[in-house]
Structures are given as C-alpha cells and as structure tokens.
C-alpha cells in the first residue's frame, strides 16, 4: 500500500500546504510551517470501506455546540447608531466589514467618525486608520473639520501590506480601518495594485489577521460604473459584512444598505446627512421626503415605502398640462418611467382619466427614489388630482399596487406602514382589500379596484 504523503501546516494561521515552505503563503509568517502529524488511513480501519487517504491531526478538538461560548461573537456598539442598526447591534470582534460606495459619497468621513467614537469609548480602545489614498495631512484636515481628533486614534499613510501589519503589531488597536483595499499592495504577490490577484490576496491576509487576532477590520472598497464592488466576486465572499453607501450628489441624504451580514439581518437601512462639519445620523428620515403644508395641494399624494425593514413616508407629485403637441411630453423624476407610463394607461382605460392630449410630469419630493409597486396607487391618485385640479383630503396616505386590469393588489407590511403614517399625524388611509389589521384610531378604506379608490375620494375626484 502506498505511503500517504506528508502535509505541512502553519502554526500561526493553520494553513495547510503540500510541501514545506519557509514563509506561509497565507499569513506571510516566517518559519511557522511545520510537518503536520497524520492520522491512520480510514480505509485500513476494521469495518470501513470506500474512502482512502490519511487525515491531519486537528489542532483543537471538536466540541459540542452547547459548549461553544456565545459571548465570543457578541457585537460591540460603534457609537454611530445608524451604523450599528445596519450591522445588527455593532461590530463583532474578528469580523471583516466591506464598505463600498461611489467617490465623494462620504465613506472616509463616516469611518473617520467611527474610529473617533470608538476611541472615546474607553481608555483600552485604540483605533488605527490606515489610508493608502490620502496623505496623513489630508486626513488630519478632515478630522479637524469634522471634530474627529483624539489621542487614541492612530493614523498611518501606508499602502504596503507588510508595513500595515507592522503598524498593527506596534499600536495593538482594537479596531482597524483600511482605506482602501484597492490601494493596498502585497509585495510577494504578482499583479498590479488594485488588480484581481492583489485585491484577493490583500483581503485574504486582512481576513486572516482579523480571525487570528480578534481585531475587527473595516475595509473601504471602490465601485465600478455599474455600482458593483470593484475587484473579484470572491471579495464579497471573503468578508463577513458588505455595506453599500449611497447618495445623490444633489442631496445631503446618504443611505447605508446592508447587502450581506453573517451576524444579523441583511435588509436593514441606515440614514445619514452629510454636512460640511461631518456626518450625522438621521433617526427619522420620513420628514425629509414630505413637504409640510397646512393644506394639501392638487396633484400630491403621500405613500409609505419599505426600504429594508424601515418604513419611509414619501410624497408623490403629478402635474398635468394641456398641450397642442401631437406627442405630449412625459417627464419622470425619482420613479421608474416605464411604471409611470403603465399607470397612465390603466388610468385611461379603467379610471376614465385621459391624458393622451396633455403633458404629464411625475416626481418625488426630497430626492426620494420610489421603485416598489406599492406606490402605484398614490401615483395614480396624484395624477387624477392634478388632472381635475382638486386636492386629496388632508391627512390621507395611499398604499397599493395597480394591475393592468385596474385591480388594486395587496402589498407587504401594511400594518407597519400605517403605524409609521399614524405616528407622523396621518389619520386616513386607502389600502388594498384584505390588507390585515391596521392601527387603532385610523380610518382605513379598503379598495379592490382603481375606480373604487377614486370613489373613496371627494365626489369631484370621480372619473373625468
């Protein structure tokens, strides 16, 4: 019988290689690779058949799940409530978080605020901010402007990965920020900086550092023109949490979305406001998407959208203008243009609201982006209101998806949406039929068709 081949294991990161090497290819530790003891072949044991080969002796024995401590991976709050909300309570020791976003959206500003608040928690907490894109002076200027200067915040302008590990050994931080992973260079790995090979190697090394030392690592990542994380797809598999930081350059509102989270829900959303003096958490963003007025104006309707688990109130506006142009214009902002065109067609066919000889403009307030079908009915009533020049009743919120046959379909989380609307002072709601329970003290009209929704409104809002 052939003698089983020997294997070699790194004592630092437990990486296994087929032959001895002087430097571990996984964690770059020198002289840590040793021959691993082998177990007897399974095939040679009495009563066994099939698989052949020898196994490695485990460094730590397997234990019952009930004996594994649940406090090891307990999240620690960062001090930034909206970030903690998306992370599921805070940062887990030894975790790797990837924060991706477009240039200028505020990624570095957000993480600079994180390291500042982290260092303020206790005298034992030190944070290390490693930047490969800016000089130390540039980061200090931003810290002065945002008030993020602290004695226990350490800064290193470095792009060599081995030198970064040296800084970690000297500082002994409890939190590590790398800005950005595409600017780091592993000298012993082929490929250009920011290339697929380099990004994969750098991320793998930083992940090993986090798992072996227990230091949580936050990585800033670039995005492509399509909005995807730049680099290999394996990058998102290597890390524990993937967050996307989004925002319109014409607005100060920023949204932090969880895409992947091994420690909590992956559909949470955090809201921030980017200002000249830093970044602030927005715990109640619904007010940003509503235009406050004493009376409602013709052509406006309020709806509630679900962004992850968060209910956000938004205002839909419609404007209908007569025109002599044989091809009337359709302009849309903040919504899907194809969806608006479909709602116009359903209004004409099943609601009697004809706009074939009129220009139609549809938009949202405050830069809000409405993509879910639950806003269909609000859009339809806003356009009908504008076409008749009659305002909807005050305190009204509208929910529902409109089908091509003119039916109003149910949407998810109606009770949560209405509870948020009631909290902000809305007293009347139009919802699809069989939408479940609703908050006490709120008048709710359930409709099954678009025509019924139009009849619920004042008589002058009926079919035109």
Proportion of helical residues: 10-25%
Largest sheet properties: 9 strands, mixed
Alpha-carbon Rg, integer: 29 Å
CATH homology superfamily name of the largest domain: P-loop containing nucleotide triphosphate hydrolases
CATH architecture field of the largest domain: 3-Layer(aba) Sandwich
- What structural class should be given to the helix and strand makeup? alpha/beta
What's the mean pLDDT score?
87
CATH topology of the largest domain: Rossmann fold
Q: Give the number of domains.
A: 3
Number of strands: 21
Helix-strand layout with pairing:
Elements: E1 7-10, E2 16-17, E3 33-36, H1 81-87, E4 96-101, H2 107-119, E5 127-131, H3 136-146, E6 153-157, H4 161-171, E7 175-179, H5 196-213, E8 217-221, H6 234-238, E9 241-247, E10 253-261, E11 269-275, E12 278-281, E13 300-307, E14 310-322, E15 330-333, H7 337-351, E16 358-364, H8 376-388, E17 396-398, E18 401-402, E19 408-409, H9 414-423, E20 428-432, E21 443-447, H10 450-456
């Amino acid at each position: 019988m052939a003698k089983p081949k020997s294997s070699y294991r790194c004592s630092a990161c437990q990486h296994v290689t087929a032959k001895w090497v002087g430097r571990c290819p996984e964690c770059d530790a020198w002289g840590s690779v040793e021959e691993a003891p082998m177990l007897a072949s399974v095939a040679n044991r009495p009563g066994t058949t099939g698989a052949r080969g020898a196994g490695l002796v485990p460094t730590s024995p397997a234990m019952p799940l009930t004996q594994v401590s649940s406090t090891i991976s307990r999240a620690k709050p960062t001090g930034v409530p909206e970030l903690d909300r998306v992370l599921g309570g805070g940062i887990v020791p030894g975790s790797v978080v990837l924060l991706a976003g477009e240039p200028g959206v505020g990624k570095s500003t957000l993480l600079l605020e994180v390291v500042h608040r982290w260092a303020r928690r206790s005298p034992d907490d030190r944070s290390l901010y490693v930047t490969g894109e800016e000089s130390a002076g540039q980061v200090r200027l931003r810290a002065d402007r945002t008030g993020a200067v602290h004695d226990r915040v350490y800064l290193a302008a470095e792009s060599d990965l081995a030198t970064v590990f040296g800084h970690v050994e000297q500082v002994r931080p409890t939190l590590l920020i790398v800005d950005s992973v595409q600017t780091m260079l592993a000298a012993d790995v082929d490929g250009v900086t920011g290339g697929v090979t380099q990004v994969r190697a750098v991320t793998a090394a930083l992940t090993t550092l986090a798992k072996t030392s227990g230091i949580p690592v936050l990585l800033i990542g670039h995005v492509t023109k399509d909005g995807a994380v730049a680099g290999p797809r394996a990058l998102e598999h290597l890390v524990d949490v993937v967050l996307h930081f989004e925002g319109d350059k014409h607005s100060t509102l920023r949204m932090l979305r969880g895409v992947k989270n091994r420690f909590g829900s992956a559909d949470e959303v955090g809201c921030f406001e980017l200002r000249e003096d830093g970044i602030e958490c927005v715990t109640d963003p619904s007010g940003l998407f509503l235009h406050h007025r004493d009376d409602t104006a013709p052509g406006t309707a309020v709806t509630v959208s679900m962004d992850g688990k968060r209910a956000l109130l938004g205002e839909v506006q419609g404007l209908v203008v007569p025109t002599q142009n044989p091809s009337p214009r359709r302009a849309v902002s903040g919504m899907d243009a194809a969806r608006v065109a479909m709602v116009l067609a359903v209004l004409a066919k099943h609601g009697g609201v004809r706009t074939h000889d009129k220009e139609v403009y549809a938009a949202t307030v405050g830069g809000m982006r409405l993509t879910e079908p639950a806003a269909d009915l609000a859009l339809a009533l806003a356009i009908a209101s504008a076409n008749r020049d009659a305002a909807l009743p005050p305190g009204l919120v509208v929910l529902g998806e409109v089908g091509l046959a003119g039916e109003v379909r149910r949407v998810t989380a109606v009770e949560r949406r209405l509870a948020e609307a009631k909290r902000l002072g809305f007293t009347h709601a139009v919802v699809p039929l069989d939408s479940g329970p609703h908050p006490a003290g709120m008048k709710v009209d359930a409709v099954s068709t678009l025509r019924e929704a139009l009849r619920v409104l004042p008589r002058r809002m009926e079919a035109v």
